[in-house]
Amino acid sequence: MSKCIFDQIVERKNTNCVKWDGAESLYGKPQLLPMWIADMDFSAPDCILGALKECLNQKIFGYTYAPESLKQVVQSWLSKHYDWKVPSEAIVFNHNVVSSISLALRVLTKKGDKVLIHNPVYNPFFEQLKQLERVPVVSELDIHDNRYFMNVKDMERKINEENVSCILICSPHNPGGRIWDPEELQVVIDLAVKYELPIIADEIHSDLVLPGMKHQPMAQLAAGKCTIITLMAPTKTFNLAAIGPSYILTFERELTEKIKREQKLMVYPEINPFQIAAMTAAYEKGEQWMNELLDYVKGNSDYVRKHLTQINGLRCMDSDATYLMWISYAELGLSEQEVNEAFVANGVALQMGSMYGEAGNGFFRMNIATPRVNVEKGTSMVLRAFQQLMAARANV
Ligand SMILES: Cc1ncc(COP(=O)(O)O)c(C=O)c1O
Questions:
Q1: Once rounded to an integer, what is the mean pLDDT over residues 6-11?
Q2: Beta strands at 114-119 and 91-94: parallel, antiparallel or unpaired
Q3: For the chain, what is the mean pLDDT?
Q4: Containing domain of residue 338, as a range?
Q5: For the whole prediction, is pTM greater than 0.90?
């Protein structure tokens, strides 16, 4: 079989790369196969590399503004992929999504306010709330048929009892890989309307949907019935985390102005020439690459699922989106510490579930956006780790 572009190994060591070069200090062992932080081991597409090289020709990199044409690039992408017509005034560029979460929280809430989040969820949600002195109110997700579902009754009870001021939602869900159904999102919108709560929707994974799946932007569904700040970016999709940019969508003029004012206190200008070049190329010319990527990731996911079933009690959650697999070992009755130690001893760095909230205990997250050969190695390291742990237990 001929090799595809995603099979190519791109050397990332000694590039100050958090995933490969930063693993040793975090996991305490050199030469680990890193399947943790969410970026990809694939080269960005040629169209982006070409645009970045061309950008160098401008030779001077002074203060830069986002041209109207960049907004049109975003509008076209949203229209084509989500059939979502977004006015250009709704778009505010910002370097990355995590800082946009902070910006949105600052604009919508004040110190001491309570913010509803799911559990488990992308760990910086907890960190941002803590740093900003907002209080997380967590609603545990339910599991049915090997997938996460929101517990809407619990969400409403918590909104009432805890006097929640804002909802922060991850859609599609990291780490669970769920694309929330429009019906589920509608229920959250109804809660927001009923209790007059704003929503912050982190939709950074919206493009990374597995073949046949479709993401529903929450603000499109809400159609102005409640306040929603949407956070999106081409950075996960096209592997541009170190470059950016991201964008914030709001549909209320005053709120947009507030966001811009708050942003100026933190960062100016809101964009740089490399971000403009990368994003334009990604959204104008990157679609085919993205579709091939999604097929490749699906192949990786199928591989991991097939092989991990060799261990009774390991369960990969069914996933609709993201290149992150969320895998339960809860039935094996092993502690997180011993599982993590066994992973590291066998040469693989994975993210342990409790960092995504208490409900993540008994799970680990595996980043499969890496050439198949690494996925094969990582899967056999995981299998060996569990085989050793089970064998050690049988000998006690
Ligand atoms: C849900 C979610 N939001 C935000 C980010 C990070 O975005 P950025 O690198 O633009 O800050 C990630 C990265 O994994 C993510 O999963």
A1: 97
A2: unpaired
A3: 97
A4: 5-45+287-394
A5: yes
